[in-house]
Design goal:
CATH topology of chain A: Ammonium transporter fold
Membrane topology (chains A, B, C): Multi-pass membrane protein
Strand content of chain A: under 5%
Shape of chain A: globular
GO molecular function (chains A, B, C): ammonium channel activity
Distance between the termini of chain A: 12 Å
Structural class of chain A: mainly alpha
Protein name (chains A, B, C): Rh family B glycoprotein (gene/pseudogene)
Pfam families (chains A, B, C): Ammonium_transp
CATH superfamily of chain A: Ammonium transporter AmtB like domains
CATH architecture of chain A: Orthogonal Bundle
Number of strands of chain A: 3
Organism (chains A, B, C): Pelusios castaneus (West African mud turtle)
Helix content of chain A: 55-70%
Number of domains of chain A: 1
CATH class of chain A: Mainly Alpha
Number of helices of chain A: 18
Oligomer: homotrimer
């Protein structure tokens, strides 16, 4: 038994209890039901404005929320189960850190966006935003998957949510940038934050765990559950907080076509770049999703269906090429070990999506948007900004996001290096047995390997 | 070939045909489309009340219904696939008995709640309630999982639905208790009913099947599909039939935060109670869900977000401790063999939820609820009851539920002991091969074990 | 390495790029946002008709759309993963061809149904219809599963979508037939189209791959994910494009009860037809779904709940019997190799559903439908047709569908025989290794078999 795991017995409970109790206290002090969630406030509003109960925003946001919720817990969770010996950790640590992040981000985002008279008022929209923020943390988790302890991951979530909140506040509230589906705030931020953490935590000896970094046949099928759910519900993700009416429907449609075109591009490139013309599950599981990322900013705009398709198509190409050619270089040259290839799925498509958003914003005309301009670009509609300057602000938003991600990720990476946090040894990466009771003495499946590995563990622990 | 299985050839078809045909006849005689489902009635209502088609309650309940439906068939079904050799039985018997229970409970609940002029009128709300009732049956199924034949299970569903209907009627209609998410009617009832059935069917020789009671690596991942879906959609479960508007949104939010806090408590306790500091998949798969159970009664009340968190946190602690310390005692001392640990996931958290509901009801004030009091506590709002007496009635509701569960479960357990129902031998528990054509002569996966077991079967059959 | 796979390196990218670019160009020329999706048009409508943003049809169709979307990509995709060595191909080729089909059918259906002033206007309803059309293609895919290259499948989708569009136009717009859930347009058409393709592509030497046509324990569990999702969301499928209000709610309810009764019938028949009284996963995975198919036409009509149950019950019986007795005959006598048994799940229940629809239509009376007649049978309501003649038209619609399916399938089958399309050898069917990088040198799972098979491949390639 390694020292690491013995320490986990106290460290993990300690950080879980601490974070949860601290969160409960802050909720008790600051968080209240908003005007649609409180019995008194909502019924007051009903009476004063002669409203119908059916106008509660619950009915117009909750189905989207549930799709996003599915993406966060099933989508991200199962996407990462492709690792043959890290399925428990993938789906369950995803579960743990998302469960914490949605609470913590309710506080952080609440302070920035719905803090009135010393209280944070929350409702269905804050729940969607909390899930979004936890999405960014899970993207970063993808970069460090299998190489970090749950204690490290919870600390990463604590800090990353905070940086996320500040960056999002600057983008949306200070710069007036639009980013409903989070090409910048979620994908670009989450990816480069995670890559920087991974850079700081670089493991020169990771080759000792490489044989465990692959998949088995059925772990690839589990991962496809994650992939397909992310793909399916991405239209809900991008549209979940856009303005009611045409905006939501248009965002859904753009995302739908972008993803469809991206899928064909991914299959094509996957066969093309493989020497034998075979398809690679890694590409299908990941690059086919880049079409959702790339229209995260522009999805609510008048992108046109064929514009969405072109965007998705390019994202699929770039992402697949990234998996084939860039990931190995990041590892060998830049010392960035990116377990899930988040740079290819979220990083590059996120940047492309931000640039596309800036372009489409700069091209906005009254003729195309009509009265709908108010919902999509309120600052253009009220005359305080031209379309071109909106485009420029969008571009600056990307730069600021990259800055926050790189600086934040580096700082947090440094914090996570603290020895006491129980990071696994280089020989123990991508291995559930470090943190989990694993069915072991079973003649099927993983039985034999586990036994072998158990010896490895002893050895590495005694080093 | 054992005698049991040969008999199944006629018994299972016989009971399926009998129950289904009987149900069809009762539906033909009694069941009619309600005012929102019938073409004539709804269009009459549209004309008379100058309504819009979009006010049909379908649009305000159906998304919740589909989430609940997913929990019943995917959630419960896959949660139980953790057993390495009972995956087919887990997901498919769950499917079978739920498919029967939703039909039967439409009748039973219809007689109690929507019987007018000799007819039962049904619509989207009756579908949700039918799914709820089948949830209770599936909880009981969890207690006896792997130790009962499908014939026994269908009979259990037949009787349990009936007891459920009576208990629910007494609680909601006679006592005026509130229990929208079913801490009492569904979880407490289903758990203790199943535990009593399991007690009556106690198998002193079950150790002969113990080696099959565990999981393999991938069966634990299949189970996580069930867990995560239950966790995700629990907010929809608790809110599916609460009043429109703030009530639904508040219930969703309370459940969301309760579950999040419960998850952290579960991970913490799981690491703490394990000697080596490792996490146990059984805890994560089950105890992390106790946060949904515990706010089943109080979720629609003004519990406050931090109140929900405290409830969920405690539920996670209790549930994990139950799995570690109580389940073995139930088995050895009380002769209750609880395959899925429903006592920890549904039993104790259900009781805690009922008590919490009584407490929060007793604390209700006009100041906090405003005009919304009518929706949450109509009997307090119209002055026919004080908050304190509502709390007392809630408490009595718990006692009555426990009574019905214990008496009902004992009686039904006695019925299920009838020899002809084809209960598996003690050596054949947790084994799909008794009831299923299983891929057998395959070099991968389960091939070898199955062959070995086949001999076991012959032997036990000839005893 | 076989010649086939080497060629795939260029062929698959070529056809993907070609189809996608061609589609993008057609979208650029023809496809525009409709009046609810365009910022300008919707806000114009809001102003002119004094509407609320919340009346956008997005809110009343999107949850149904997402359920249908889940059925197409998760439901169909995972249902087909039952094959032990074709899991990647099942879920991923399903993904590929559906991603293409939804784009292509948006164009084809758009030309027939929403072509105004030289443009196709699209919104949420066209997205549902596109998913429906891709459902038909995926049904045909089920018939040829494991025996066709992805290049062949994309070509099949290209042509089948076109035939589908013509047939659907004739049924709905020319004949005025009703078929909201697609018993005819989707299930009957997709099944017989696929069976004819399979007939033309008959492989007399398929026995060489038979050992690979089975399942392993966990592949059957993956398939159950598909089954349960299809079962769960079928009510949404049948109701997704019916009229608002009672129609949608009634369709949901009819489908719900039909499926429940079908499930009991399936379990009963499965045990009955098996010599040892054991249940067969193939039946549960497939026949239990026939209850959704059989009410595809009549679901929106005043079928009554018990009528729906009878229909589902019969569908379950017929479908299970078909798997047991008809599929082997189709293969041996009619030379139709039906991998997934689509004849039993979609073919026969589809025809039964069409006949049931004709019957229920012929029995429609003003007394039963009231003012709701306008929504269900507009041509009866406005006096241009009697109920009987509506029934007759429904029946002709079935005949025309069968005609289009048989002729279309035969023609497309002939096209797919072109040698260059890279059809797998008879020894290589049901085998992922032909098209995929498969985790191979791994001691677990499929490692050993794959190695053996690799030699097979060499040999067959050199023949």
């Amino acid at each position: 038994m390694s020292d690491n795991t013995n320490h986990l017995r106290l460290k993990l409970p300690a950080i879980c209890f601490l974070l949860q109790l601290f969160t409960i206290i802050l909720f008790a002090v600051f968080v209240r039901y908003d005007h649609e969630t409180s019995a008194r406030l909502w019924h007051q509003e009903l009476r004063q404005h002669n409203k119908s109960k059916l106008e509660n925003d619950f009915y117009f946001r909750y189905p989207s929320f549930q799709d996003v919720h599915t993406m966060i817990f099933i989508g991200f969770g199962f996407l990462m189960t492709f690792l043959k010996r890290y399925g428990f950790g993938s789906v369950a640590f995803n579960f743990l850190i998302a469960a914490f992040a949605i609470q913590w981000s309710t506080l952080i985002q609440g302070f920035f966006h719905s803090f009135h008279n010393g209280k944070i008022y929350i409702g269905i929209e804050s729940m969607i935003n909390a899930d979004f923020c936890s999405g960014a943390v899970l993207i970063s988790f993808g970069a460090v998957l299998g190489k970090t302890s749950p204690v490290q991951l919870l600390l990463m979530a604590l800090f990353e949510v905070t940086f996320f909140g500040i960056n999002e506040y600057i983008l949306l509230s200070v710069l007036g940038a639009k980013d409903a589906g989070g090409s910048m705030t979620i994908h670009t931020f989450g990816a480069y934050f995670g890559l920087m953490v991974s850079r700081v935590l670089y493991r020169p000896q990771l080759d000792k765990s490489r044989e465990k970094e692959g998949s088995v046949y059925h772990s690839d099928l589990f991962a496809m559950i994650g992939t397909i759910y992310l793909w399916l519900f991405w239209p809900s993700f991008n549209s979940a907080i856009t303005a009611h009416g045409d905006d939501q429907q248009r965002t859904v449609m753009n995302t739908y076509f972008s993803l469809a075109a991206c899928t064909l591009a991914t299959f094509a490139m996957s066969a093309l770049v493989n020497g034998e013309g075979k398809l690679d599950m890694v590409h299908i599981q990941n690059a086919a999703l880049a079409g959702g990322v790339v229209v995260g900013t522009s999805g609510e705009m008048m992108l046109t269906p064929f514009g969405a398709m072109i965007a998705g198509f390019l994202a699929g190409l770039i992402s697949t090429l990234g998996f084939k050619f860039l990931t190995p270089i990041l590892d060998s040259r830049l010392k960035i070990q990116d377990t899930c290839g988040v740079h290819n799925l979220h990083g590059m498509p996120g940047i492309l999506g931000a640039l596309l958003g800036a372009l489409v914003a700069a091209l906005a005309t009254q003729d195309v948007y009509g009265d709908g301009m108010t919902d999509v670009f309120p600052l253009i509609a009220d005359g305080s900004r031209t379309a071109t300057s909106q485009g420029v602000f969008q571009f600056f938003a990307l730069l600021i996001t990259l800055g926050f991600a790189v600086v934040g990720g580096s700082l947090v990476g440094a914090v996570l290096k603290i020895r006491i946090l129980g990071s696994p040894l280089d020989t123990q990466c991508f291995e559930d047995q470090i943190y989990w009771e694993v069915p072991a003495d079973h003649p099927d499946g993983y039985g034999h390997m586990m036994a072998v590995n158990s010896e490895d563990q002893e050895r590495s622990a005694s080093i």
